[in-house]
Amino acid sequence: MRTPCAIAPFYGYLVWLNTHRKIFPSVPASSYFGVGAGSSFTWIEPERRIAAVVRWLNPAAADGFFGRVFDAIDAAPTRQRAQA
User: Fold this and answer.
1) Considering the domain boundaries, does residue 45 fall inside one?
2) Helix, strand, coil % (nearest 5) of the chain?
3) Which superkingdom, per the lineage (predicted)?
4) Cα angle vertex 18, ends 47, 7, to 5°?
5) Do 51 and 34 touch, CB atoms closer than 8 A?
6) Domain of 33?
7) What pLDDT shows up at residue 38?
8) Is residue 59 part of a domain?
9) Who's near 20: CB < 8 A, 6+ residues apart?
C-alpha cells in the first residue's frame, strides 16, 4: 500500500505518499493520505498512531491544517510523561 509506484513515486496503492515531505511538508514523510471528492482527506501517520478524517477542507489550506494538528498532538503530554 505504501510502496511507491514506479512511474509516480508520490503514489502508492490508492494512497498519496508524503515521500520526502513533498506533498504536505508540515507532517512527517511517513504520513500517507487518501484524498476524495469534496476535498475529503484521510490522514494516516503511523509513527504517532494518528488517523484523521477531514471533510470539506480547502486543499490550499490542507498542509497548514495538518501541520497544526500534528504540532498540537506532539505538544500534548503522553500518559507516560504525565505519570512521571
Assistant:
1) yes
2) 30, 25, 50
3) Bacteria
4) 130
5) no
6) 16-83
7) 82
8) yes
9) 29
Q: Point out which residues pair with 31 in neighbouring strands.
A: none
For the chain, how many structural domains are there in total? 1
- CA distances, 64 to each of 4, 33, 58 (Å): 24, 15, 10
Residue bearing the bigger pLDDT, 12 or 40:
40
27-75 tens-digit pLDDT: 999 999 999 888 899 999 999 999 999 999 999 999 999 999 999 999 9
Q: Is there a contact between 66 and 43 (Cβ–Cβ < 8 Å)?
A: yes
* H helices present in 22-78, as ranges: 62-75
> CB–CB of 25/40 below 8 Å?
no
